[in-house]
């Protein structure tokens, strides 16, 4: 496992998927913010954050997820957290975000929901 976060973006019919791979920590938080800003520039109505390959998330990483949620809300972008492992799901709960966060079990589920 690498200590650096890899970020890639896939465009889908009604939005974009930001794929993350690696731990979401201090340096990674900045990369996530940049990816969200880049996708936002495309006037994307929905962003799915693929967390399947994120094995760990520290306080700074959770801060990046919270910042992404706030950024999306301000710009009327739907942000879906997909395939969050137990550590991230528990952090979302611990930070009182469970009611505001859209959590899906997989990217496939999130995309299927968009395609309706």
Can you offer a commentary on this structure?
This protein has 4 helices and 5 strands, in the order ββαβαβαβα. It has 116 residues and is α/β, with parallel strands linked by helices. Strands 1-2-3-4-5 form a 5-stranded mixed β-sheet. The chain is globular.
Describe, in short, the structure shown.
The chain is α/β, with parallel strands linked by helices and 116 residues long.
Neighbour order of strands in the largest sheet: 1-2-3-4-5
Q: Tell me, rounded to a whole number, the average pLDDT.
A: 86
> How many individual helices?
4
- The percentage of residues in β strands lies in 25-35%
- Name the helicity range: 40-55%
Secondary-structure element order, as H and E?
EEHEHEHEH
Rough shape?
A: globular
Number of strands: 5
* Category from helices, strands and their pairing: alpha/beta
Please compute the radius of gyration using only Cα atoms.
13 Å
Distance between the termini: 36 Å
**Main sheet: strands, sense, barrel:** 5 strands, mixed
Poorly predicted regions: none
Task: Produce the secondary structure layout.
Layout: E1 6-12, E2 15-21, H1 26-40, E3 46-53, H2 59-74, E4 78-82, H3 86-94, E5 102-104, H4 107-115
Parallel strand pairs: 2-3, 3-4, 4-5
Antiparallel strand pairs: 1-2
Helix pairs in contact: 1-2
Keywords:
single chain; 116 residues; alpha/beta; five-stranded mixed sheet; 4 helices; 5 strands; globular
